[in-house]
Write a structure and sequence with these properties.
By secondary structure, this protein is of the alpha+beta class. It folds into two domains: 103 residues, PH-domain like (Roll); 51 residues. 38% of the residues lie in helices and 33% in strands. The protein contains four helices and nine strands; from the N terminus they run E-H-H-E-E-E-E-H-E-E-E-E-H. The chain has a five-stranded mixed beta sheet. Helix 1 runs antiparallel to helix 2. The longest helix is centred in the middle third of the chain and has 23 residues. The radius of gyration is 21 Å and the shape is elongated.
């Protein structure tokens, strides 16, 4: 029986300051929706005004929360799993047991364009990914053949820690 020390073996993070600009656009849409609701006369063109208010509020919420969720990603490797948490509240979250990892690779250059943009992505030919910025990251090949990629600073050390753990478990 192997006893592992408590706590993380490695932690890393990736941030994207450009997402704050998009979050500001979402906040502006929300503010416009509130201003339209409060300042406009509701006695004429009720349906059009209601649609404009709802549209601004919905677009603002989607943009604001959609971008804030991917301002940063935190990756933790412990003795049992790799966990990826996004944004300030940690959602979306992905936890992959190390027992399910067949291989780990360092990827020096990942771009949002390769994955169709920022966020939690799925591409049939590439697997799933958490992309919060361009740059280095790690790619996990799971036992079922699926791939999981995440952009994170110091990814080369993360891969080294994961590989060391996988070798120790194999022996």
């Amino acid at each position: 029986m192997t006893v592992h020390p408590p706590g993380p073996l490695w932690t890393g993070r990736a941030s994207n300051r450009a997402q704050w600009v998009l979050a500001g656009a979402g906040a502006a849409c929300l503010a416009l929706g509130v201003q339209l609701a409060v300042d406009q006369a509701w006695d004429s063109g009720f349906v059009a005004l209601l649609m404009a208010v709802i549209g601004c509020l919905a677009a603002g919420l989607l943009i604001l929360f959609g971008t804030l969720a991917f301002v940063h990603a935190a990756v933790t490797v412990d003795a049992d799993a790799i966990e990826v948490r996004c944004g300030h509240i940690g959602l979306p979250r992905r936890r992959i047991r190390l027992a399910d990892v067949a291989a780990a690779e360092y990827v020096p250059r990942i771009t949002p364009q390769q994955w169709g943009g920022w966020g939690y992505r799925w591409r049939p030919e590439r697997g799933t990914a958490v992309i919060v910025r361009r740059g280095e990251g790690l790619e996990l090949r799971l036992g079922d053949g699926k791939l999981f990629t995440v952009t994170v600073d110091d990814a080369e050390n993360a891969v080294r820690v994961i590989r060391t753990h996988l070798r120790a478990v194999a022996h």
